Amino acid sequence: MLASADEDRAGGGAGDPGGLRVTGCDWGVRGAVLAAILACSSAACAGLPDPNADPLLVAQRHLRQSRQWLAAACDLLGRGDRHAIDGYYVACEEAWNAAWTCPGSAEIFPEAGELYADALAGFLEAARQHDRLTSAGVWVGTRSKPILVPLQPRALPIDASGIASVEPQAQVDDRRVSRRHVRSGFGLPVVVRVVAAGDETERQSLAATAVLRFPVPGNETRLQKFVGPAARDHAAAVLDLANPVEIAAVRIGPVRSDLAADLTAPLLDVLAAKPSTTSIQGFIQPFGRGDTQPRLELLEPHQPGRIPVVFIHGLASDEGTWFDMINELRSWPVFHSTFEPWVYHYPTGAGFMQASAALRRQLNARVREFDPSGTDPALRNMVLVGHSMGGLHAKLQVVDPGDALWNAICTVPFDQLRLRPKVRTFLQQGYFFEPVPFVNRVVFIATPHQGSILASLGVGRLASLAVRPPATNKAVHDEVVRLNPGAFRPEYERATPTTIDLLEPKSSLLHAIEGLRVPCWVTCHSIVGNGHHSLTGGRDDCVVSVASAHTPFAVSEIQVPATHTKVHHHPAAVLELKRILVQHLAEIRR
Question: Looking at the predicted structure, is the pLDDT value of residue 455 above 70?
């Protein structure tokens, strides 16, 4: 019944919902549901013409029954009654039967689809509220005689054991995502939350479409037809959770209908778990709480053969700033089938070199975790995308600094300093490193390679003074300066430079980063904002000038008419990143 763009993915003959059957039920299973609607159900059956005379009349009867079951089940759910799930189950079945009886009817099919989706949403919500959903399926029926509706993930990157929950309610909109990518059709769009693998703070969510498949109607006995679904056993059924990108349609008899989809819902579900104060609090008090620790996050489970595109946010921001662009990319079939988004979260008010070192460690750790034998070429062709200061972090993943970064803060060779071993290791990770070997493309977006004049102004000075450095960083700084008097340049001797200090055009560390050469195996691109006229008559994005965002290492550069915080949201930037990714694919497949 579920179909890809070219062929059916699953079928169901009469009495067969796909080879998995659920049988047996006692009369007490309906409980309070029977009491609520048995009388009106029987009255409706008694007044009907012969249902065999006209399929339209049969379908209309199924619709009436579905509405009655749905209303009763909603009442039970509102009162917290565990029998609500059985009412929703039968309401789904009746709507299903209506759709299959007259699949080509413009009068029947749309209403049947609506009733079916509403009943299925209630079915899943009741299952969630009463703990009826497991990795095996959904339990219906009485406590003494429970019955399992099997669950089948279809074309999802996980099996049933990887499902933590199924969220049937539509996720609320978020200002960080400008539009929703939805598709009307049969079934119920849901979010599948994935079982956390180690890090409980990292939520992963998948788009899925729920379809509760019943047997094709028409093989009921005379007794079953007379008493209706209120008095007969549960029909065999299977709950499909289908990937709406891989599976585009459902087949109901001779009719092919789109499969309903909400491709934006998983991103909204992830955003709902992120505190709205992360960016500000993480800037003022970096590394102060668990949610301000640097972490490389995957929005969905890693799939071998997918190329990671790592998004790195900028100053006083967080990873949520990327969700608008990721939303557009994930609705693009090329991205969906070939790439996967990773996002780097870090406290932007902390030491810049410390955050870059953390990204290097975590990139290497993820690749070792996913590909310990080094046999997946996709993980050896990673793309980094950095907005604003995130572009500088991206650059520091692909260069060999030698002693240039150290010389920018110190006048004494590193090996001649008086340092405890632990402190020496801490500093060495930040200033001496090798390029990450599996990154071969970097996209700079509104990146201040030559700094920002705002960092030198009063607002920048106040912001820098407001940052409270982590106790460990301050202790290390104070110790190395005390043990090595006169060895450090004034920029470092006063205090560990904040990210604001780094972005001052006169920063010696920034000049050192700008002068680092990108190796020949790494391809760079620039997307520059020019949506504002500067006081000097040039163009900038209100924060970074066009000249500062330019780098000689980029093989391509486009200018986007947007301000700094909007450059990576602009349609032209999304289109350019798509072009770059297509080029990336073409080059690695040669």
Answer: no
